[in-house]
């Protein structure tokens, strides 16, 4: 039994069989079991008991948990296929400023920035997925709430100042159906949202045509903003990773 449990051909056959089961056949990798949820918690415990080494028993156990996780997702308790709006933020020219400012002033600024931009996200039902130094990634179930949060964060940030330095923030929004794995969100739509932010240049708020189409018609009017098609600067590098059918727009205050 022990020999069969470790045989590479048996393990390979079980992994292939998992491709036919409901759910994510990669369930059990470090990314898929690092987040919250009952199935993930059991998976972490099972992997610890198994010692992390490949085995037939491990694959059988993860196959069962894979099906369980898929069942949870169908009733809204795990990763599903519902669209979300992804938001990326970033401070313009922050790195060059922080090098001259030093660690103490940099940390002071980052604390003030967090106090300015994170509460509007939480107040509008958004979830901060991760912080990346001077920026963050958040997800919203509603594109309207995402846009409102982004604009509120920008207003708050206008009040932030450290030793005469006032940070500028660029923001990118895109709506799609990324995959939630281990508390993170992965996939093409996440990359597109990041490219939207990159298009923000020196401090603009950019959104994809997908997000624009998903907004309620009255939202932009209520916020007092208009949208303009993005025109890439002649000297700017092209944005890689944005499908041809996705257009980019800039939000402008009226």
UniProtKB/TrEMBL annotation:
It comes from the Bacteria. InterPro entries: A/G_cyclase, Adenylyl/Guanylyl_Cyclase_3/4, Nucleotide_cyclase. One of its GO terms (biological process) is cAMP biosynthetic process. Pfam families: Guanylate_cyc. Residues 85-197 form the Guanylate cyclase domain. Gene3D superfamilies: Nucleotide cyclase. One of its GO terms (molecular function) is adenylate cyclase activity. Coiled coil: none annotated. Belongs to the adenylyl cyclase class-3 family. This is Adenylate/guanylate cyclase domain-containing protein. It comes from Nocardia mangyaensis.
């Amino acid at each position: 039994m022990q020999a069969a449990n470790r045989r590479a051909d048996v393990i390979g056959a079980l992994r292939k069989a998992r491709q036919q089961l409901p759910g994510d056949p990669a369930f059990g990798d470090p990314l898929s079991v690092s987040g919250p949820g009952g199935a993930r918690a059991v998976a972490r415990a099972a992997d610890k008991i198994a010692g992390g080494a490949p085995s037939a028993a491990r694959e059988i156990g993860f196959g069962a948990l894979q099906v369980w996780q898929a069942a949870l997702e169908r009733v809204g308790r795990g990763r599903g296929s519902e669209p979300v709006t992804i938001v990326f933020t970033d401070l313009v020219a922050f790195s060059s400023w922080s090098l001259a400012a030093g660690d103490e002033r940099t940390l002071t600024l980052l604390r003030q920035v967090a106090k300015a931009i994170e509460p509007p996200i939480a107040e509008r039902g958004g979830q901060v997925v991760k912080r990346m130094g001077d920026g963050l990634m958040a997800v919203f179930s509603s594109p309207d709430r995402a846009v409102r949060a982004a604009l509120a964060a920008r207003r708050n940030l206008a009040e932030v100042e450290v030793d005469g330095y006032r940070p500028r923030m660029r923001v990118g929004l895109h709506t799609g159906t990324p995959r939630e794995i281990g508390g993170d969100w992965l996939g093409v739509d996440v990359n597109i949202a990041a490219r939207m932010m990159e298009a923000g240049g020196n401090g603009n708020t950019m959104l994809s045509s997908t997000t624009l189409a998903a907004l309620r018609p009255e939202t932009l009017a209520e916020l007092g903003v208009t949208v303009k098609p993005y025109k890439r600067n002649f000297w700017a590098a092209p944005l890689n990773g944005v499908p041809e059918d996705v257009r980019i727009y800039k939000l402008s205050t009226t």
